[in-house]
Write a structure and sequence with these properties.
The chain is flat, with a radius of gyration of 21 Å. The protein is mostly helical. The model is unreliable at 22-30 and 32-48 (pLDDT under 50). It has one domain (23-124). The chain has helices at 2-25, 50-69, 73-104, 107-124. Helix 2 (50-69) packs antiparallel against helix 3 (73-104). 69% of the residues lie in helices and 0% in strands. The termini are far apart.
Length: 137
């Protein structure tokens, strides 16, 4: 019985290692440097944040859909517009969520949270200051 468990674990380890190697080989989609402010190796443009990654995923998804479904130019334009509206709605919802959390915290807790976010931002290399957690008026 021990032999089966050992063999099973070794097999799982090999599959995991092979998957990790394959994942490392994949290259991220190239971005349009005229709109991108994220740093890339060998590039001189800066980082914009999570919105960039979301835009890149949506664009890759659209390219994949087009390759399978042969979308018309009009359909692609309509999907891009839907993606833009969706992205804006998500950003608005995220801001509301941040504000609701902030309203629950004491001033001391808010200061700790702000310091933690700034530390994380600097650790990631994103030195842009955080947008204030205030409702737009």
């Amino acid at each position: 019985m021990r032999k089966f468990v050992t063999i099973g674990l070794l097999g799982l380890a090999l599959v995991t290692a092979a998957t990790a190697q394959e994942h490392k080989k994949r290259k991220p989609a190239a971005c349009d440097s005229t709109q991108c402010s994220r740093p890339h190796p060998g590039s001189n443009h800066a980082h914009m944040g999570g919105a960039h990654a979301a835009e890149m995923r949506m664009e890759r998804q659209l390219e994949h859909m087009d390759s399978i479904l042969n979308l018309s130019d009009e359909q692609e334009a309509q999907i891009r517009e839907l993606n833009r509206v969706h992205r804006e709605a998500i950003q608005s919802l995220n801001q509301e969520h941040k504000m609701a959390i902030k309203a629950l915290l004491t001033p001391e807790q808010q200061a700790i949270m702000k310091a933690q976010r700034e530390a994380m931002r600097q650790q990631r290399g994103n030195v842009m200051p955080e947008a204030p957690m205030e409702s737009p008026e």
